[in-house]
């Protein structure tokens, strides 16, 4: 290459100023957008992380104007690698945001072509390096092709979004912008990015006069890229999530006339019943009360307690490793309690079985009636797949043949493809509705026998906010109810004051496997009649102060109308016995019994207060160098279920492979070898008598870091006289072996003898008949990507307090398509479509009827002589709920 043809840092003042201005503008904008993204992103959402990575990768290319030759060419080429990866990542992000609106074939074609374009970018990275370091001028040939391999996907995304807004959502662009100026900014940025994209292409193809710009200098691709990134940053979530939220507002504004149409979760809360009254709260009562929560009170002093290990299986291989530490207050428990550990029994095959029980005598509650048999649940949450994939990619780059630039180029391409692979993992189908801004996961149901009647209750959570809610499905796979989008657990039907209610925990989960939240109790109209909270002198890992400290693991209503809940407290504790230091931190695992009517704590219990009976050295949860600090305290106990038993409590401790119950002066229970379990959840008691009972549990047998054996449901016949536990049932599906690493539950369906197992970290529910045969499998997410802490099957009847929803789209002059739904309603079987003369008509005329078909029913109405319609949900000819009148 001749000296006159050499490429160097711009020396022309106009070119230098223009390039410096373009780079400074790009870098400044990216820094601001990255900061905004960082403070608004949700750590558990992959899309938000990818947007931040996209911005960070492009930043260094906004500084290559500073180095001088010969560093200039190398610096520009290296920073261009991150920029090129960022461009490909932008197309992946656009795919993620637009994917809910694309068919499966279009989605696969979109992401497939993005992947197929990657070899060009490898070539372009090389061409850029060779050009700016004066090896050859291939770049002059490849650079004009950049728009073809960079921009078609973004143009498609923009056109697709505008088309979707026009076709799928019942409002215009200007109305949408008035509802959400932020969305308007995004749409304007899309248009501007395409405009500058066109100008950039024209500039590269020398459409403009050579005298209009310095040779080789043009800022248009930077401006296009800035507006592209602004589109990603101004709305972090996918397009459908954002549009559905705005549509919900539009529904209320246009269809409701101020009345409630959609269930938004903004319940009125009630903490107290009226004194001296057993009546159910009226509408006025509920609306007059707010959710302040009662103060946590110290329980009355209790007599001494004795701990007896009830059921425990111990595989002799847990490791204990040293940790680091720091300091905090301990949640105080009563000093007058003593606990006694009693019994060990060993078996062959390297498995040591120990059966343990703890009983806590509670004098203030001694005169209350015993607990009815019931069902329950429990779990943790971990996801290591993305980290594992990234680690694999990095190891591949390290071991890659070649060196220098070749390894860098290959590594960047592999990382880009790896990001695409991670993003493409969740292929599970989600529902799209016209009458509600919901996107719940579709549930796939397979029946192989006779099942018990009832609805399926789950609280899934995964990589996307849509569908993360309390959900009810019928056995045909139809959605029945979706609650507000929030992390929930223990969603099910329970009995309170002799009436059926639905209960669930909602709050924030931590990365340590527990959470902070409140328990919500709704009647059969979905009005929130009680909100149970817990305050107190707690320490949290991040020093935050939540509104309530109730943990997600338990929210069990007892027969005495109290609520059993769990909680965690960061506590400074000497861990020298397991190789730690005197100033380490651990989690004290606690449970509370709370009077639902008053929100007062009537009993509390701390595992750490009984460390002399439950030795820390017996914990199966190893401690490593990353745990033992205030931010990462060691979780030795992990209580995940609590149940009343006689006059005490049955406590499941996952990290001890044990259930504890207290009874003075008695020994442990001997368990047969067939009943071995580990890392269990959800211990429950059934058919309790003075001499015997049935005990059940969900046997995970695995952890997120160790897979040992298939997960099973186990039940035992417990002889309270001879203190033995004999295995009754071992439930598993040989055709579908599941390894659940966390969470899960065992639900006894009386009186049929059927059992429902929720598999926690695996998004499945299975029902087994009395002969232990699997008769139903329901799956609502991809394995190990979507979880539901517990899954239940419950009988339920509900008539919501909100009105049905209606959306009407005109098909022709005298016909229209009507969409109708009633979120949560179980009792109606058909719809009547009514014609009205105006929006405020008091009289309507029936036009036609439609049989109920799933959550949302649709049908075409012909021969219309009005533009005002209304729908009525009916059971036979009996009206149960009436929608607002809408115009179309």
TrEMBL record:
- For whether the record's keyword set contains Membrane, the answer is yes
Keywords of the record, alphabetical order, are: Membrane, Transmembrane, Transmembrane helix
Entry keyword annotation includes Secreted: no
Q: Which domain of life is it from?
A: Eukaryota
State where composition is biased (Basic and acidic residues). Answer: 273-283
* Chain positions covered by the region annotation Disordered: 266-301
Q: Which residues cross the membrane?
A: 20-39, 46-66, 72-96, 108-127
Question: Which Pfam families does this UniProt record tie to the protein?
Answer: Arylsulfotran_2
- As given in the record, the signal peptide range reads none
Q: Which PANTHER family match?
A: AN04G07800
Q: What is this protein called?
A: ASST-domain-containing protein
Species in which this protein is naturally found: Aspergillus felis
């Amino acid at each position: 290459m001749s000296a006159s043809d050499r490429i160097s840092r711009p020396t022309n003042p106009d070119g230098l100023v223009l390039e410096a201005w373009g780079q400074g503008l790009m870098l400044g904008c990216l820094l601001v957008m990255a900061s905004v993204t960082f403070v608004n992103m949700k750590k558990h959402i992959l899309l938000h992380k990818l947007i931040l990575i996209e911005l960070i990768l492009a930043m260094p290319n906004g500084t290559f104007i500073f180095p001088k030759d010969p560093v200039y060419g190398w610096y520009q080429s290296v920073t261009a690698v991150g920029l090129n990866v960022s461009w490909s990542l932008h197309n992946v992000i656009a795919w993620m945001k637009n994917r809910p609106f694309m068919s499966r074939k279009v989605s696969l074609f979109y992401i497939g072509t993005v992947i197929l374009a990657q070899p060009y970018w490898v070539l372009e990275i090389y061409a850029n390096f060779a050009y700016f370091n004066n090896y050859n001028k291939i770049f002059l040939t490849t650079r004009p092709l950049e728009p073809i391999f960079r921009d078609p996907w973004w143009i498609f995304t923009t056109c697709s979004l505008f088309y979707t807004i026009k076709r799928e959502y019942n409002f215009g662009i200007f109305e949408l912008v008035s509802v959400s100026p932020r969305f308007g900014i995004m749409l304007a940025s899309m248009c501007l990015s395409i405009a500058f994209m066109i100008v950039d292409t024209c500039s590269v193809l020398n459409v403009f006069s050579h005298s209009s710009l310095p040779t080789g200098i043009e800022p248009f691709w930077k401006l296009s890229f800035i507006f592209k990134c602004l589109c990603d940053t101004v709305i972090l979530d996918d397009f459908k999530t954002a549009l559905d939220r705005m549509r919900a507002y539009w529904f209320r504004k246009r269809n409701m006339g101020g009345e409630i149409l959609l269930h938004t979760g903004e319940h009125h809360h009630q903490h107290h019943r009226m004194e001296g009254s057993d009546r159910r709260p009226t509408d006025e009562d509920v609306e007059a009360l707010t959710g302040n929560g009662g103060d946590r009170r110290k329980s009355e002093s209790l007599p001494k307690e004795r701990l007896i290990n009830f059921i425990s299986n111990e595989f002799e291989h847990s490791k204990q490793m040293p940790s680091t530490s720091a300091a905090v207050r301990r949640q105080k428990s009563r000093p007058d309690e003593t606990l006694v550990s009693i019994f060990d029994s060993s078996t062959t095959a390297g498995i040591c079985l120990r059966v343990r029980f703890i009983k806590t005598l509670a004098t203030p509650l001694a005169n209350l009636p015993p607990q009815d048999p019931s069902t329950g649940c429990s779990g943790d949450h971990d996801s290591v797949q993305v980290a594992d994939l990234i680690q694999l990619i990095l190891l591949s780059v390290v071991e890659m043949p070649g060196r220098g630039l070749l390894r860098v180029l290959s590594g960047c391409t592999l990382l880009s493809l790896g990001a695409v692979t991670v993003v493409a993992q969740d292929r599970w189908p989600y529902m799209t509705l016209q009458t509600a801004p919901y996107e719940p996961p579709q549930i796939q149901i397979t029946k192989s026998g006779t099942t018990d009647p009832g609805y399926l209750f789950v609280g899934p959570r995964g990589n996307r906010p849509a569908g993360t809610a309390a959900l009810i499905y019928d056995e045909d796979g139809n959605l029945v109810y979706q609650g507000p989008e929030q992390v929930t657990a223990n969603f099910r039907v329970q009995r309170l004051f002799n009436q059926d209610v639905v209960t669930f925990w909602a709050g924030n989960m931590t990365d340590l496997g527990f959470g902070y939240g409140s328990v919500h109790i709704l009647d059969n109209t979905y009005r929130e009649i009680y909100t149970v909270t817990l305050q107190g002198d707690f320490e949290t890992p991040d020093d935050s102060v939540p509104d309530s400290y109730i943990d997600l693991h338990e929210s069990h209503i007892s027969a005495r109308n109290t609520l059993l809940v769990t909680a965690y407290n960061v506590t400074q504790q000497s861990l020298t016995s397991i190789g730690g230091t005197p100033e380490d931190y651990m989690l004290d695992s606690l449970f509370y019994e709370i009077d639902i009517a008053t929100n007062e704590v009537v009993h509390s219990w701390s595992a750490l207060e009984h460390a002399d009976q439950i030795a820390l050295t017996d914990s199966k949860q190893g401690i490593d160098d990353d745990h033992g600090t205030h931010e990462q305290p060691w979780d030795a106990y992990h209580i995940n279920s609590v149940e009343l038993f006689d006059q005490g409590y049955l406590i499941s401790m996952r990290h001890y492979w044990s259930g504890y119950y207290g009874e003075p002066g008695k020994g442990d229970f001997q368990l047969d070898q067939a009943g071995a379990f580990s890392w269990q959840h959800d211990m429950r008691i059934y058919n309790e008598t003075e001499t015997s009972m049935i005990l059940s549990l969900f046997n995970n047998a695995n952890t997120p870091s160790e897979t040992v054996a298939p997960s099973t449901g186990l039940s035992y016949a417990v002889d309270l006289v001879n203190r033995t536990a004999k295995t009754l049932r071992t439930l598993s599906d040989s055709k579908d072996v599941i390894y659940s690493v966390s969470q899960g539950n065992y639900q006894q369906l009386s009186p049929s003898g059927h059992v429902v197992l929720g598999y926690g970290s695996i998004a499945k529910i299975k029902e087994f008949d009395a002969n232990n045969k699997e008769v139903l499998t329901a799956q609502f997410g991809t394995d190990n990507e979507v979880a539901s802490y517990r899954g239940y099957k419950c009988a339920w009847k509900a008539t919501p307090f909100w009105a049905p929803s209606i959306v009407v789209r005109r098909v022709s002059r005298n016909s229209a398509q009507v969409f109708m739904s009633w979120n949560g309603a179980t009792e109606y079987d058909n719809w009547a479509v009514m014609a009205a003369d105006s929006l405020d008509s008091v009289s309507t005329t029936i036009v036609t009827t439609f049989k109920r078909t799933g959550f949302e029913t649709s049908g075409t109405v012909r021969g219309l002589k009005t533009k005002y319609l209304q729908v009525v949900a009916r059971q036979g000819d009996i009206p149960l709920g009436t929608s607002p009148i809408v115009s179309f």
